[in-house]
Design goal:
Helix content is about 65%, strand content about 0%. It has about 600 residues and is mostly helical. The protein binds heme-as and copper (II) ion.
Length: about 600
């Protein structure tokens, strides 16, 4: 498959080349360096997380159990989850956002020191948490953290795991402060202008993030850290779970909104056209700010002790929360169609063939969108209180989130790196033929794995288990209706291996790019054409970020005030539970 050069295939009148305009790295060398550092940590986490992923896929499907023993399964699963959804995501997003704000405001960071501080805070946090997790595999490190990425009490990790997680979050707050400082300095010179779209998207995402992380910050700082240090003896598992899910749902939009930033601002240009509507994009982001947090109880439908009425409210809010994604499906596909028609495409559907499918930055983002549509539908099923009882805690749920965070986010991040990394390094993309195939490899692997996971979940196969035999009785019920469970297990393992190969291909391309010489034609243009319907067609009140943030806070208080007060009524630490397993290892040398 040949790799089409975006600058040569796109039509002149829709995507202008930036001949003469300095590449991003030359204009913003400081920002580029820290974006590169963020991406380097993100890709290292992806490599480690991917390795853990394929090991556990082979182990739990019984295809190959020679690498780990089942007693290490939860260490590997925790490593996979934390590296992928906390480290890879957060660092990639920090770099992407720095690029988005810098390029759309056309100005560098307001404080170089702050940039270094947030990066190092997040990195130290990552190293602490990773040390605790790796400690589960070796006696050399007297720590462990086999608590999975949801770190539910009463499962207890070593304190450095929680301290590390807290530092990652504090670092992300400081990164947000950095973007806001850049915005304020721009605002002082552009009083009456509309906020440039990419900066608007970053700021709204960060406001949502500030509200969402309050839940987990309270959980970790006031309960889990003192508890793991032995300062308090018990915690209330239901209260801490509720605080976790206060954060745990909106965190998924912290992953999705950066992917949407790419789909709204870069994908239309890669398609050869322009974004359909700037105003609609702003509304979508504001809807996420308003509705992301008051829905967390949809992860706790089966938790006893939370009145059904609150769960019902969360379900209703979740259904409203489908709206911004459905609007996105319309706007982004319309923009792609516009691009295809600019490239000479026609017909109702045949324009799809005129999209630049051999450009991996395009194909990866589009395929990520396509699989997200499927992930969105399984999300709708999760969200129904009654149907949730059928799928909760089964393999259906990992099937769902590998399509969402594992594809909508991860594949978009990888594919847009093919476009972004040349700009922040000044080097031409390496191994272009491998890059052109890589998104398809991910797509096929994920279709196999996630489809099989969904089906296994319907057969009652539980999630979070190392043992394929535990659910053998389900085979009898299932075999006649849907095929055999052993076939499903094989598809999961095969999909997992293909995903791992795709991941290695991505890393090879990044490495080869880094080895390319700097300077010359980097093969991509960073210019992004304006929307067909620009911000002037939407009301100015959309840019009043403080108003929307205030409304979002009120909605959170309405959704969470009473339930939290109810949980706290019998005391904040009761009904209490001691930690399991009990960890009383010395804190130092670790
Ligand atoms: Fe979810 C569980 C409900 C979205 C992640 N979710 C999870 C977990 C994770 C996760 C990690 O209500 C597991 C947590 C755990 O460990 O326990 N989820 C939803 C709903 C949505 C949703 C209603 N989830 C996400 C996103 C995630 C994510 C996004 C990460 C990024 N989820 C749930 C529920 C549970 C849950 C329950 C609990 C389950 C349980 O019982 O434990 C919605 O936001 C989805 C809306 C999406 C759509 C799709 C629109 C389509 C678009 C595609 C456009 C196409 C393009 C390309 C651009 C309606 C936008 C076109 C290409 C061409 C070629 C034309
Ligand atoms: Cu959720």
């Amino acid at each position: 498959m040949a790799f089409a050069d975006e600058t040569t295939t796109a039509r002149e009148e829709t995507v202008t080349d930036t001949a003469g305009e300095a590449a991003f790295v030359e204009r913003y060398p400081f920002e580029s360096r820290w974006i590169r550092y963020c991406f380097a940590v993100a890709f290292a986490a992806l490599a480690g997380g991917g390795l853990f992923g394929v090991i556990q896929a082979l182990h739990r499907t019984n295809v190959y159990r020679g690498i780990i023993s089942s007693s290490d399964y939860y260490t590997i699963l925790t490593g996979h989850g934390v590296l992928m959804v906390l480290v890879f995501t957060t660092f990639f997003i920090a770099g992407l956002f720095l690029w988005a704000v810098t390029s759309s405001l056309d100005r560098g960071v307001a404080s170089e020191r702050l940039t270094k501080v947030w990066f190092w805070t997040m990195l130290v946090g990552t190293l602490l948490a990773a040390t605790a997790i790796i400690g589960g595999l070796t006696d050399v490190i007297p720590a462990s953290a086999d608590v999975l990425f949801t770190f539910y009490a009463p499962l207890q990790a070593h304190p450095i795991f929680y301290i590390g997680a807290a530092l990652i979050i504090v670092g992300s707050w400081l990164a947000g402060a950095n973007y806001f400082k850049m915005f304020f300095s721009w605002r002082s010179e552009h009083r009456d202008e509309r906020i440039p779209l990419r900066t608007f998207m970053v700021l709204v995402t960060m406001l949502m993030w500030y509200i969402a992380t309050m839940g987990v910050a309270v959980e970790v700082v006031f309960f889990l850290i003192p508890w793991s240090l032995g300062i308090i003896e018990t915690v209330d598992p239901l209260l801490t779970r509720t605080l976790f899910w206060f954060f745990g749902h909106p965190v998924v939009y912290f992953w999705l909104m950066p992917a949407y930033l790419v789909w709204y601002s870069i994908l239309p240009k890669l398609s050869g056209g322009r974004l359909f509507s700037d105003g609609l994009a702003r509304i979508v982001f504001l809807l996420f700010l308003l509705l992301s947090t008051p829905v967390g109880f949809h992860h706790q439908y089966v938790d006893p002790g939370i009145p059904e009425g609150f769960k019902f409210v969360a379900m209703t809010n979740t259904m409203f929360l489908l709206l911004p994604s459905l609007l996105t499906a319309f706007t982004v596909v319309a923009s792609m169609e516009h691009g295809a028609r600019q490239r000479g495409g026609g017909g109702y559907f045949s324009w799809l063939g005129d999209l630049p499918w051999s450009n991996p930055a395009f194909s990866g983002s589009a395929l990520a969108g396509l699989l997200f549509a499927a992930g969105g539908f399984s999300g709708m099923i999760n969200a129904g209180m009654n149907i949730n009882y059928l799928v909760h805690n089964t393999l259906w749920v990992p099937g769902h989130f590998h399509l969402t965070v594992g594809t909508a986010f991860a594949l978009t991040a990888m594919s847009i790196s093919y476009w972004l990394v040349p700009q922040v390094t000044g080097r031409r993309l390496g191994l272009r033929n491998i890059a052109a195939v890589q998104p398809y490899m991910w797509f096929i692997g994920m279709v196999l794995m996630s489809n099989a996971m969904h089906r296994a979940g319907l057969a009652g196969v539980p999630r979070r288990t190392a043992e394929p035999y535990q659910y053998q009785s389900a085979d009898i019920v299932y075999e006649s209706a849907f095929g055999s469970l052993s076939g499903i297990r094989l598809q999961i393992a095969l999909g997992g291996v293909l995903l791992f190969v795709a991941l290695l291909m991505f890393l090879a391309v990044m490495w080869d790019t880094y080895m390319n010489p700097r300077g010359g034609n980097i093969g991509v243009s960073g210019e992004i054409p304006p929307a067909l319907s620009g911000p002037e067609h939407s009301p100015k009140v959309l840019d009043n970020l403080w108003l929307w943030a205030a409304i979002a806070v009120v909605l959170v208080i309405l959704a969470y005030g009473l339930p939290l007060a109810g949980l706290a009524q019998d005391g904040l630490l009761s009904p209490g539970s001691p930690g399991f397993p009990v960890l009383l290892e010395p804190l130092w040398p670790f």
